[in-house]
Amino acid sequence: MNDVRGIAVLQDPKLNKSTAFTEQEKQTLGLVGLVPDVTESEDLQLQRVNLQLAQKPTDLERYIYLMNLLDHNETLFYRTLMSDPARFLPIVYDPTIGEACLKFGHIYRQARGMYLSIARRGKVKDILKNWPEKDVRFICVTDAGRILGLGDLGANGMGIPIGKLQLYTACAGVPPQYLLPMYIDAGTNNEEYLHDPLYLGMRKARPSTEELYSFVDEFVQAVQEVFPKCCIHFEDWTGVDAVHLLQRYRDKYCVYNDDVQGTAGIVLAGMINAAKIKGKKLSDEKYLFLGAGSAGIGLADLLCSAMTQEGLSLKEAQSHVYMFDINGLLEDTRKDLVDFQKPYAHKHAATRDFVAAIEDIKPTTIIGVSTVGGTFTQKVIEAMSRVNERPVVLALSNPTDHAECTPEQAYTWSKGKAIYAAGVQFPPVHYQGQTFLPGQANNFYIFPAVGMAIFATQASRVTDEMFIEAARAVANQVPSDLLKQGLLYPLQSNILETEIQTAARVANLVFDSGLARVPRPNDVVAFIRQHVYRPEYTGAATKTAQA
Ligand code: NAI
């Protein structure tokens, strides 16, 4: 209990029930006369929210409205999101979040999360202590080096950790008080923002890698001291930083990178189901990537681990994976490759022609993680259709206009043969009397569930096996009739239940691996359910002791 009363209750989004205070609460908390003299249910409040949202002309306006709602009433915000995830996830996250980030400094209303400037070197621990919650379990941190497919957005990238953590709660029920969005401000090379008077970050070019990494070292170390149960989720760093920072910390601390591991997990789930539609295994397939950055490499590595679980050696598994980047096919004479790309640089003639590479390598699956929209041209899809009965086309770059091709293009150009998924949500496609359901290979099926498993088990490390297990669990939850229509992922309408089941499987693995810091329960699904946040007002508006 604490003694917050009167107007201060209404100003605290965690305590505020708006029009839902009972008579007794109004009396006890000194609210009589400060709120309308009614006691509404959460559902009635939700009706009002929906009415107001319907009057907003664009999704960006709806995003701004929902963030304002969160500023005032956290429970009602999450109740809204969780009432219809398929409708609201695209507003609080992809694709609207891309536009919200581009305009972040302009639409800014209220501080949320923490801003940690590299100029504060030596002071990170003290700054972390300014955060009001003492038991933080997840920090989602970005330096905004590469936001979605939009490049270096500097402080405007803060929208991403905010949105990402909201999905932990909305999709998997991780309670919001344990979540801390964080922006490490290391400057930006974005000229437009550097000259924008409303830009909210440091007006400096980005530092050297060495300078950046030593600051991140201080941050990671400080987190261990200030929030010892915390898992650090790295998000939207440049590809090279993402992979290198993950390598730097993954064996020592509880950290993961969603662009590397979460993306890989969700795409792997889609690949498992695409192979299932064809009656094949992952290791029967051959993969050609367009893009060899953090998402591409993370996926290739996880895919190879999953193929080794099917009995291949790592070398054999790597021989199933080819990659293309901005300079053409990764092959063994290329001099510009970084360490983590080399396992996929096979003996092959140099080429910059993706269609010719398809004709020659004959991949069964192409995976677009290039950040460049429209790169799966008609010629690309036709070439895939020539060498495959059922070509698998995963056009994963986002936001929407960065997708390598649309589902309509994939189905039309392949004459209905393609098995397709994108990084963003597309509506069903009707082609020659058939309805195709394009899947959304969005990591929000994976990272919130893995997050819930980490939260509930207090896992001390995050392993690739946890993401493979999550992928298998997600893949398993697509009903066979929908799989037949080409749907590779579960429906979003039931996302909380899907993630509870996924989290339980990951939690089982955490217990099996000896990484849990709590005793193993008898019923792991029930144990996960006990940890799930429900967007309901509890008792009188009192701050429960979280400290
Ligand atoms: P990155 O910047 O690390 O890598 C991009 C790669 O694409 C580089 O290898 C680059 O050389 C290559 N590339 C750029 N232009 C190209 C071109 N015209 N032709 C061939 N290759 C080209 O970016 P990262 O982190 O790998 O992300 C890639 C994309 O994947 C982004 O659009 C991101 O939004 C998307 N993504 C999607 C997710 C999902 O859930 N579907 C999750 C994470 C990322």
Short description:
With 547 residues, this protein is α/β, with parallel strands linked by helices. Helices cover 44% and strands 10% of the residues.
The tally of helices reads 24
How is the main sheet built?
Answer: 7 strands, mixed
Mean pLDDT: 95
How much β-strand is present in the residues? 5-15%
List the defining traits of the structure above:
7-stranded mixed β-sheet, disordered C terminus, single chain, 10% strand, 547 residues, alpha/beta, binds 1,4-dihydronicotinamide adenine dinucleotide, globular, 5-stranded parallel β-sheet
What would your notes on this structure say?
Helices cover 44% and strands 10% of the residues. It is an alpha/beta fold. Helix 14 (258-277) packs parallel to helix 21. It has a seven-stranded mixed β-sheet, sandwiched between helices. A five-stranded parallel β-sheet has the order 1-3-2-4-5, with helices on both faces. The protein has a two-stranded antiparallel ribbon with strand order 12-13. The termini are close together. The radius of gyration is 24 Å and the shape is globular. The chain is built from 24 helices and 14 strands. Residues 540-547 have low confidence and may be disordered. The site of 1,4-dihydronicotinamide adenine dinucleotide has 30 residues, from helix 14, helix 15 and strand 7.
